[in-house]
Specification:
The complex is a heterodimer of chains A (about 325) and B (about 325). Chain A has helices spanning about 15-30, 40-45, 45-55, 65-75, 95-105, 105-110, 140-145, 155-170, 215-230, 250-260, 275-285, 305-310, 315-330, and strands at about 10-15, 35-40, 60, 80-90, 120-125, 150, 175-180, 185-190, 200-205, 210-215, 235-240, 240-245, 260-270, 295-300. By secondary structure, chain A is an alpha/beta fold. Chain A has 2 domains: about 5-190, Thiamin diphosphate (ThDP)-binding fold, Pyr/PP domains (Rossmann fold, 3-Layer(aba) Sandwich); about 200-330, 3-Layer(aba) Sandwich (Rossmann fold). In chain A, β13, α11 and β14 form a beta-alpha-beta unit. Chain A is globular. The model of chain A has no long low-confidence stretch (mean pLDDT about 95). The radius of gyration of chain B is 19 Å and the shape is globular. The N and C termini of chain B lie far apart (about 45 Å). Chain B has 12 helices and 8 strands. In chain B, the strands form 2 sheets. In chain B, strands 2-1-3-4-8-7 form a 6-stranded parallel β-sheet, sandwiched between helices. Classes of the chains: A alpha/beta (about 325), B alpha/beta (about 325). The interface of A and B includes residues 36 and 62 of A. The complex binds thiamine diphosphate.
Chain lengths: ~325, ~325
């Protein structure tokens, strides 16, 4: 559970991240008539949304991810705020051109004449045993592409708050939804709950080691931190929430305090978010380090469908505990 | 100037002068490249009638997306040759502050949303621009220029199908110039005409002689009226020829000389000039005056572009985000 700034007066509602996303979208569509949404089955599955906002603003599309993303970019450049649902992250490969070359670059190329306020939703991660063509944590591809913002929340409240921020942002935002979390209910502050993009959340404070993570591995890190506490090791857990812009300040402040960093995510290691964090820590907090930085990631392999293999894909609490114990003993 | 306006039918004169301006501009760009003073660019020499004819049918409410061969479209839309050339040279006075170069020029004030050098990029954004028109109101339509090569990209088919299904006001203008960079169209498709593909998407389509500016103007006016009135897409193919190489410099030795010669004889500017002279729609003196006016504009543009400053280094990382 993340630490939210809301005070005790805020009432909480328990809902799944999936429901939180639907609520965020509906609220933003109510607030701003230029917000529209489309994708394969969006109007069918979002029946309530279609009923409330009508067939103009909630649309099913042909099965063609390239033109879905391109249409969003064209609409964004000329006055609308599209939210597109590309279903599963591997399907983004069909929309890379439009997202990377157009939405990400054209504000710059045009010398600032055009902006691209659009949100692309994609699901990923282990949890449904759907296999490698529906599950690939490819969020780092987009971190590596200029002009995009990338978020990946870990709990219902952040799903809602980050989606609302993404819709209000004047830039293209990639919204990665971890499949394994979508049906885990959590408390969401009622009302206009907005979480700023680019701000990490310190989920748990600690002094001996910093665990930096996002998505489902936030929960593994929190579980690991509890076990570690029983062993006398105090772990701080940072949920990045935004991968771009990255909240360097929060990460660096923590690492300067603890002197140790363990970077945890489900995505593979090569050129991933952990690699970027390790570089930032080495460049800016090297003198604070008491031990080498450790990365715990999914393997550099396609994700398997077989349930036990899939469950072993993302680093779990036990592996995190083991890595930290080793690091602290160092 | 006054004599010219009195004695020549305005649109005819305008079309000729616009085509002459494009040709002179492209030749100036190519010359700057040959002299080592400019990066490479793709010229539209030979395709001037297509650009001018279609633009003749549009008005200021309309929005335009185009491809890497866009200088003709921009000029026919009324863009300032000084600022296009400055952009090609990467100067701060260019339409995009020098960050585009020749290949991605957009001009918001003229409704030019995009020049895409990703072949087909213009096709991917066009339905969205039209969706904005559909949802935010107004009578404007969207015109997207693309090549026969772009028509072989999957995104063309995704784009026109979506525009058809969603009733989007897009005029698709395929400039079939017979070439796809270094590959002849005949190597990549069995059909001679892209327009025949429209029917499979339920989109009305037509091919027009892309080297006859009056014919293009007439066909484009009909097409624009259809799109504006029905709010449905239309596919107009302008059948034409790329008279220079794919990009500068390109000696284009791969081009069949007989084919090139047959199209040179149908040069859209030379044939139009001759027609207007034959029909006494223009006098030789008026033609000379028009040509010197054009030459003066292009010389001025070249001087402006050459003398303009490059962007400051701070511009390296501005506008990455809105
Ligand atoms: C996606 C993509 N593939 C390849 C290229 C390289 N390229 C640039 S222009 C061109 C030919 C395009 O042909 P066509 O669409 O007919 O336009 P034309 O150049 O004839 O005006 C190619 C292959 C590119 N710019 N973008």
């Amino acid at each position: 559970m993340s630490t939210h700034e809301e005070n005790a007066m805020t009432t909480m509602t328990t809902m799944t991240p999936e429901a939180a996303m639907a609520e965020a979208l509906a609220e933003e569509m109510r607030r701003d008539a230029t917000v529209i949404t489309f994708g394969e089955g969006v109007a069918t599955k979002g029946y309530a949304l279609a009923q409330e906002f009508g067939a103009q603003r909630v649309r099913n599309t042909p099965l063609a991810e390239g033109i879905i993303a391109g249409t969003a970019a064209g609409a964004a450049a000329t006055g609308l705020r599209p939210v597109i649902d590309l279903l599963f992250a591997p399907f983004l490969t069909f929309a890379m051109e439009e997202i990377v070359n157009s939405a990400g670059k054209l504000s710059y190329i045009s010398g600032g004449q055009f902006s691209f306020p659009m949100v692309t939703i994609a699901r990923t991660g282990s949890g449904w045993a759907v296999g490698a063509q529906h599950n690939q944590n490819n969020e780092a591809w987009f971190v590596h592409s200029p002009g995009l913002k990338v978020v990946m929340p870990s709990n219902a409240a952040d799903f809602k708050g980050l989606l609302k921020s993404a819709i209000r942002d004047d830039n293209p935002v990639m919204f990665f939804a971890d499949i394994g979390l979508l049906h885990t209910p959590g408390e969401v502050p009622s009302g206009d709950h907005v979480v700023p993009i680019g701000k990490a959340s310190v989920v748990r404070e600690g002094v001996d080691v910093t665990l930096v993570t996002y998505g489902k591995t936030v929960h593994s890190c929190v579980a690991a931190a509890s076990t570690l506490e029983e062993n006398g090791i105090s772990a701080e857990v940072i949920d990045l929430r935004s991968l771009k812009p990255l909240d360097e300040a929060t990460v660096l402040a923590s690492v300067r305090k603890t002197g140790r960093a363990v970077l945890v995510h489900e995505a593979a290691a090569p050129c991933g978010v952990g690699a970027e964090l390790a570089a930032i820590i080495a460049e800016k907090a090297f003198s604070s380090l008491r031990a080498p930085v450790v990365r715990l990631t999914g393997p550099d392999a396609p994700s398997p469908a077989s349930f036990p293999l899939e469950a072993a894909f993302a680093p779990g609490a036990d592996a995190i505990v083991e890595a930290v114990v080793k690091q602290v003993a160092n | 100037m006054t004599t010219f306006e009195v004695s020549v039918e305005p649109r005819v004169a305008q079309s000729l002068e616009a085509m002459l301006l494009i040709r002179a501009f492209e030749e100036q760009s190519a010359a700057l490249n040959a002299a080592g003073k400019s990066p490479s660019m793709c010229t539209s020499v030979g395709q001037e009638a297509s650009a001018v004819g279609v633009m003749n049918a549009l008005d200021e409410r309309d929005q335009i997306l185009t491809n890497h061969r866009s200088a003709g479209h921009l000029l026919a839309r009324g863009a300032d040759p000084r600022r296009i050339l400055a952009e090609i040279l990467g100067k701060s006075t260019g339409y995009c502050g020098g960050k585009s170069g020749s290949l991605h020029i957009s001009v918001k004030e003229l409704g030019v949303v995009l020049t895409s050098t990703i072949v087909g990029g213009e096709l991917s954004l066009a339905p969205g621009v039209a969706l904005s028109r559909q949802m935010l109101g107004g009578e404007g339509i969207v015109v997207v220029f693309f090549g026969d090569g772009a028509a072989t990209e999957g995104i063309f088919h995704e784009s026109i199908n979506l525009a058809a299904v969603w009733n989007l006001p897009v005029l698709y203008v395929c400039e079939n110039n017979q070439w796809q960079a270094f590959v002849h169209r005949k190597e990549t498709m069995l059909a001679d005409h892209i327009s025949t593909w429209g029917a499979s998407y339920g989109v009305k389509s037509q091919t027009v002689d892309g080297n006859d500016v009056d014919a293009v103007t007439a066909a484009a006016k009909d097409a624009v009226a259809y799109v504006r009135g029905t709010r449905k897409p239309f596919l107009l193919e302008t059948y034409t020829y790329r008279l220079r190489g794919h990009m500068e410099p390109d000696p284009a030795s791969y081009v069949d000389p007989a084919e090139l010669q047959s199209w040179k004889e149908r040069d859209p500017i030379a044939t139009y000039e001759q027609r207007l002279l034959d029909e006494h729609a223009i006098t030789p003196a008026e033609l000379d005056a028009m040509k010197s006016r054009v030459r003066a504009r292009i010389e001025d543009a070249a001087q402006f572009a050459m003398e303009s400053p490059y962007p400051s280094f701070e511009e390296l990382t501005t506008n990455v985000y809105a």
